[in-house]
Amino acid sequence: MSRSIVVTGAASGIGEAIASLLLQGGDHVTAMDLDAEALEAARVRSWAAYGQLLSLSRGDVTQSGDVKRTLHVAHARTGRLDVIVNNAGITGGPQALKLHQTSIEDFDQVWAVNGRGVFLMCRTALPLMLAQGGGVIVNIASVAGMVAFPERSAYSISKGAVVMLTKSIAVDYAAQGIRCNAVCPGMIDTPMTHWRLQQPELRARVVSRIPQGDVGSVLDVAHAVQFLASPQASYLHGSTLVVDGAYSSV
Ligand SMILES: NC(=O)c1ccc[n+]([C@@H]2O[C@H](COP(=O)([O-])OP(=O)(O)OC[C@H]3O[C@@H](n4cnc5c(N)ncnc54)[C@H](O)[C@@H]3O)[C@@H](O)[C@H]2O)c1
What we know:
Blueprint: E1 4-8, H1 13-24, E2 28-33, H2 36-47, E3 54-58, H3 64-78, E4 83-86, H4 104-132, E5 135-140, H5 153-173, E6 178-185, H6 194-197, H7 200-208, H8 218-228, E7 240-243
Parallel strand pairs: 1-2, 1-4, 2-3, 4-5, 5-6, 6-7
The chain binds nicotinamide-adenine-dinucleotide (NAD).
C-alpha cells in the first residue's frame, strides 16, 4: 500500500526533487510550501504525471494552524501519516554576517523557519504516528549544523538545533517505532545557492574547498532521503547522513 508522506518546502530545489522521487516510487505526497504559485509551477514542471498521488498544501511551517491542517490532510488520504520530510528552510539575509552583526529580526526569522518550524511539524506529527504505532521523520539539516559556516551564525545555530532535535526524538520515541534521522547536505545547486554559484569566481572558491571537486545536485540529497525513509534504513535512527562531497571531512 502507498505511504502518505509530507514534504515541506516542496516547491523548489531539494524539496521538489524529494517529492518527485517519492511520487515516482508510488507514494502519496502532500507537498507543502509557503509559496502557492511556486507550488503550482512545480506541479506543472515535475509532478504532472502523478495526479491522484499528489496533494498541494499552501502553508507556513512557522504557523501551527497551517502545520496541523497540512498533516491532517495528508493523514486523511490513506488513514496514516507514514513519513514527514522537514525540508523547508531559509538562510537569512543575503549579506554574510558574524553574530554581533546579525539583526535580532534576521535571527528570529531564520530560527522561526529552520528551528521552530521543524519543532512544530514534529510536535504535531508525533501524536498521529504514536496512534498508528510508528512513522519516519527525516529532517534536512546542513553541514552548517556540524561545522560552523563563516559569517552565517544564525543559519548554523538553527541547523545545529535540527541535528539535536533529531537525536532527541530518536531517543524519546525509539520504543514506539518512530525513526528519526537528519540529512546534512553540503553545497547543492538550488535556487537558494544559485546566485552564488552563477558567479564564476565565487563558484570556484566554493568548489576549491570540496574534495570531490564539485557541488552536489538535488538528486544527491533526494536519494539520501528516499533511503532514510525506506524500510532498508530500519536500524538508522538518530543519525546524520552527510551528503557533501567530503566538504566537512577536511
Ligand atoms: N542548497 C544547499 O546548498 C543546501 C545545503 C544544506 C542544506 N540545505 C537545506 O535544504 C533545504 C532546502 O533548501 P533549497 O536549497 O532547496 O532551498 P530553496 O530556497 O530552493 O527551497 C526552499 C523552499 O522552502 C520554502 N519555504 C521557505 N520558508 C517556508 C515556510 N516558512 N514554510 C513553508 N515553506 C517555506 C520556499 O518557498 C522554497 O520553496 C533547506 O532546509 C536548506 O537549509 C540546502
